[in-house]
Write a structure and sequence with these properties.
The complex is a heterodimer of chains A (411) and B (434). In chain A, the strands form three sheets. Chain A has a six-stranded mixed beta barrel. In chain A, strands 1, 2, 12, 13 and 14 form a five-stranded antiparallel sheet that branches. Chain A is built from eleven helices and 14 strands. In chain A, 49% of the residues lie in helices and 17% in strands. Chain A is of the alpha+beta class. The two termini of chain A are 29 Å apart. The longest helix of chain A has 37 residues. Chain A has two domains: 167 residues, no CATH class; 193 residues, no CATH class. Chain B starts with a helix and ends with a helix. Chain B has 14 helices and twelve strands. In chain B, strands 1, 2, 3, 4, 5, 6, 7, 8, 9 and 12 form a ten-stranded mixed sheet that branches. The chains are: A alpha+beta (411), B alpha+beta (434). Chains A and B meet through helix 2 and helix 8 of A and helix 2 and helix 10 of B. Chain A: Pfam families: FtsX, MacB_PCD. Chain A: GO terms for molecular function: transmembrane transporter activity. Chain A: It is a multi-pass membrane protein. Chain A: Keywords: Cell membrane, Membrane, Transmembrane, Transmembrane helix. Chain A: It is found in: Cell membrane.
Chain lengths: 411, 434
């Protein structure tokens, strides 16, 4: 095997342009495929993040009161909740300012000391009542839920600081690194008034899923306040298997309770599965696009290798015949072409690996992206070398079948 | 001669169908992907007001307190009510408008239509002439209507179709949030892309359906939507938004000459110094006056994913081209014998080169056609996405032409090296080895 490398290099020197072109193609393909795979990985990671909710049995309704004074909406909301909770098939329901994957909500900083200038963590605020945890299906891992007498009602413009709050575990860990968050006071926003943590839930995502919220995507606070005002969201949790029926009966029950409302015809009533699909549509689309580009790119590179090697085999039939006549076995010929391709491939992937990392460094400066891990480059290198060997196999087999008689023809 | 070369090219391409197909498909895929993404990028980064945008500017001042001051951080993206009103009333620009966005409940008089919410823009009178907004019926309001906080409204053509059956509705009454407004104008179709004057309320969304004088919107307590950025004691209280330390309005000016731009910048600096002397401004004086397109760049209105896809597509095209160069090289060199005979029979190097370039161009043309079909397919897919710019993704004549220029240009470039190499063949050597 080693003995063959010298003559192969000598032969490649006579085909400089073709050799460089294949190597260049391999290098570019490697650089693009590595980065594309990495982007796919990032997107899939994001898509598979759990919200912490019992998504299979949840639906969301967007609701806007029309023609009602903002002062009266608190009472209308109470009526709506009674109507929803009484509905057959409903396990529980809440009115809430936002929910995970919805895309819009309230965010602020949290401090652990009243005099702290800088917030220790960033968080989202959910405003709802003691039915929130049973409706969402979020697991309480420490402390207790709100009690009915702790629930307040407030206009969104006049929300004060609640005496008690429930926080997500991620936020609790971030604020109190010693792990003892329960019962501790925290300061939400710029306030000097403390709010005591009375409960910690296992997981509760923020309403956003864009990369800008990546630094705090599991930091949530639930405040025991129902917000009045003209816009709200109802989250409804169905008893198992009843969600389908509720999609019709829940909005109907709301309209029956009170007609002074608009539920948007588009995306007004959605199962949580639909919420999730909508939230991640762009990410999924990007991942699929990247995947298709990778596959097509690899196919084109493989086809290019097949094409160029076939040409070389055709060009060297006489030389192959001579070698065969002088005693080279079929296996020798086969391994000649495989080794030749491997050498070109190695040249290509060395350049390609550098190119992939350079391209990633540039992408990091231009787009919100992380640094490429070396594992991706290694996997890409391996994949392209194997692809090259696979592509060259057919023409190489054809070469190995050249009969020694060819040497005697038309010389 | 060209027809002869064309005939030779077709014969040569038909001789090896698989190789030809591979080259054409590679070019088509590369062109298709590039043109799809380039078209989306072209649409999204286009000029929202061609011919006008050059004279539109977005003044910025910094009214924030010293908390978190960092000289390298950008200026606030909007203005406070006080600064907006001061700059508006100074009337130092050729035209100026102060505005913000919102959503209003519309209560149609017709019993057949349920109440619904519509996006609205609360602005001052220069909005319409400054942005060259076309009117179907009626007109916009006057500066005096701004001052008197007149309850007048301008609606879009689509809302007019919905509420008034497309008839001239000027003089009619429109009820919004329990307040009666008089319709004084109906816009003709108008959808600037991007939605440049307020990038916080949907960057490529439809423009608003309802336009109300800013003052009247405050009187009628119409809800404000969009970004509100507060500092110090500011809590974003809607009712007292005029005095809160919050930025929530956009201020645009029209400046018709470079001298006026320089003078306006000067004016902004003086204004800031004056406010600082009065104690309202705390930070070192810094002002901004970006032009419309510059403001779009600063805000990165073109989504990152779209730019990423465009780069990816061009990388893809590059690989396709390298692939085609390799295949063409193989193909041309394989015909060394044939080319040797032609050379020996008297064809000059130049003639052989021309023949091979014609062959490349044929591949380019076929690839371009295929790429165009793929681009149409790709754009159809883009239009089916949920993004707010989806409906804008169409090929215009410029991009159509660009597709062919790119396809043929790229393949000719790709054919250059192989053709040149093939020309270098010594005819005698080839004839000898036959």
């Amino acid at each position: 095997m080693m003995l063959q490398i010298k003559p192969i290099l000598a032969a490649l020197k006579r085909h400089k342009a073709g050799t460089i072109l294949i190597a260049l193609q391999i290098a570019l393909t490697l650089a693009i495929v590595c980065n594309a795979l990495f982007i796919i990985h990032e997107r899939l990671d994001r898509i598979s993040r759990p919200t912490g909710l019992d998504e299979g049995n949840l639906m969301a309704i967007g609701n806007r009161y029309v023609g009602a004074d903002d002062k009266d909406t608190a009472a209308m909301m109470r009526g709506d909740l009674v109507a929803l909770r009484q509905l057959p098939g409903v396990a529980d329901a809440v009115s809430i300012n936002s929910y995970p994957l919805r895309g819009g909500g309230w965010s602020t900083g949290v401090r652990v000391g009243a005099e702290d200038k800088k917030p220790k963590a960033h968080t989202t605020l959910y405003f709802s009542d003691e039915h929130t945890l049973p409706t969402m299906g979020t697991h309480l891992i420490a402390g207790r839920n709100f009690q009915a007498d702790e629930i307040g009602e407030a206009d969104p413009k006049e929300v004060g600081d609640p005496a008690v709050v429930i926080v997500s575990k991620a936020l609790a860990d971030k604020l109190f690194t010693d792990g003892h968050a329960l019962g501790k006071p925290i300061y939400i926003g710029d306030t000097k008034k403390p709010s005591t943590i009375i409960g910690i839930v296992e997981r509760l995502e923020v309403p956003w899923n864009g990369s800008w919220s990546d630094t705090f995507y599991e930091n949530s606070i639930i405040e025991p306040v129902r917000l009045s005002g003209n816009y709200t969201n109802f989250l409804v949790r169905s008893k198992p298997g009843q969600l389908e029926a509720l999609m019709k009966s829940a909005p109907a029950a709301l309209y029956q309770a009170n007609r002074m409302r608009v539920i948007p015809p588009e995306r007004g009533v959605r199962t949580f599965a639909a919420v999730r699909e909508h939230a991640y549509k762009a990410d999924r689309g990007m991942a699929i696009l990247m995947g298709v580009v990778c596959l097509v790119l690899l196919a084109i590179t493989a086809a290019g290798i097949v094409g160029l090697t076939s040409f070389w085999v055709g060009q060297r039939r006489k030389q192959i015949g001579v070698r065969r006549a002088l005693g080279a076995t079929r296996r020798d010929i086969l391994s000649y072409f495989l080794t030749e391709n491997l050498l070109i491939g190695i040249g290509g992937v060395v350049v390609g690996a550098a190119l992939a990392m350079g391209m990633n460094l540039w992408l990091v400066t231009q787009f919100e992206m992380a640094r490429l891990s070396l594992m991706y480059v290694l996997a890409g290198v391996l994949a392209l070398l194997l692809l090259g060997q696979g592509a060259v196999l057919a023409p190489a087999m054809r070469a190995s079948r050249v009969s020694p008689v060819e040497a005697t023809r038309s010389v | 001669m060209f027809r002869y070369y064309l005939d030779l090219a077709m014969r040569s391409l038909m001789r090896n169908k698989v190789l030809t197909a591979l080259m054409v498909v590679a070019i088509a895929l590369g062109i298709g992907a590039s043109m799809t993404t380039l078209t989306v990028l072209h649409v999204l980064s286009g000029d929202p007001l061609p011919g006008v945008s050059g004279s539109l500017f977005y003044p910025q001042v910094d009214p924030r307190d010293m908390d978190g001051y960092d000289a390298s951080k950008p200026l606030p993206e909007q203005v406070t009510w006080i600064d907006g009103m001061n700059l508006l009333h100074a009337r130092r620009a050729d035209r100026q408008a102060l505005m913000t966005g919102g959503a209003v409940p519309i209560q149609p008089a017709q019993s057949g239509i349920e109440p619904f919410y519509s996006d609205a823009r609360y602005t001052t009178s220069d909005f319409f002439p400054m942005f060259r907004v076309p009117f179907l019926y009626g007109h916009g309001w006057n500066p005096s209507d701004d001052e008197s906080r007149a309850r007048v409204v301008v609606i879009t053509r689509s809302l007019n179709d919905k509420l008034f059956g497309g008839k001239d509705s000027t003089g009619q009454t429109l009820r919004m949030k329990d307040t009666a407004f008089r319709v004084i104008g109906v816009l003709d179709s108008w959808r600037p892309n991007p939605h440049f004057y307020d990038v916080n309320t949907g960057r490529y969304s439809n423009s608003e359906d309802v336009f109300v004088p800013l003052g009247a919107s405050r009187d009628a307590h119409l809800d404000h939507d969009g970004s509100t950025d507060c500092w110090g004691t500011g809590g974003g209280d809607e009712e007292h938004a005029e005095t809160e330390p919050c930025v929530w309005l956009q201020f645009w000016v029209q400046l018709d000459s470079p001298d006026k731009v320089a003078a306006y910048r000067e004016f902004l600096t003086h204004y800031s110094q004056e406010q600082k002397a009065l104690g309202r401004f705390a930070r070192p004086v810094k002002v901004g006056l970006p032009g419309l397109m510059e403001w779009m760049d600063i805000n990165k209105v073109v989504p990152g994913d779209v730019r990423l896809q465009t780069w990816l597509a061009f990388g893809f095209l590059l690989v396709c081209l390298v692939n085609t160069i390799g295949l063409m090289l193989a193909k041309f060199l394989r015909r060394a014998g044939e080319l040797g005979v032609r050379r020996a029979l008297g064809a000059s190097k130049r003639e052989v080169f021309a023949q091979l370039m014609v062959e490349s161009a044929v591949i380019g043309l076929a690839g371009g056609l295929g790429g165009l079909l793929l681009a149409f397919g790709g754009l159809w897919l883009v239009r089916r996405q949920p993004s707010d710019y989806a409906s804008l993704a169409h090929l215009d004549p410029t991009m159509l032409l660009a597709t062919f220029v790119l396809a043929i240009g790229a393949t000719l470039l790709a054919g250059l090296l192989p053709a040149w190499r093939a020309c270098q063949i010594a005819p005698a050597l080839q004839l000898k080895s036959q």
